[in-house]
Every structure is written in structure tokens, then in C-alpha cells.
Amino acid sequence: MTYEVVISEAATETFQDIRIQVENRWGAKYADQFEERVAHVLEIISSAPFVFKLIALT
Questions:
Q1: SS3 of the chain
Q2: Whole-model pTM?
Q3: I need a surface site. Which of 12, 22, 29, 56 has the fewest CB within 10 A?
Q4: Which backbone phi and psi does 10 adopt, to 5 degrees?
Q5: Which of 15, 8, 2 minimizes the C-alpha distance to 49?
């Protein structure tokens, strides 16, 4: 069973900003790797969300 990972507009903008920073500092290769790693983690979260530690949002 997989779950849908919902990403807010703010999270999308933050991700894009971070990706741009990574690309500016270390190049397109590392920006692509960063994007691939984030996609991979999101896949894991969608298939097994409870393997990650719960954090309290206060």
C-alpha cells in the first residue's frame, strides 16, 4: 500500500530555492543528485511512512 505525499506550495518553492543554491555552489551534477535523492526519499515515505522518526510541530 502506498500513500500520497502532498507537497505544499511553500515546500515546492523552498525545494526549488535549495536546488538553485546547490547548482550555483556545486554545479548541475550535484543539483541533479540532490533532486534524485529527494525523489527517492519521497518514494520511501509514500510506501513506508512510519520508518521515519515522528517530529512534533509546535
A1: CCCCCCCCHHHHHHHHHHHHHHHHHHCHHHHHHHHHHHHHHHHHHHHCHHHCCCCCCC
A2: 0.82
A3: 56
A4: -65, -40
A5: 2
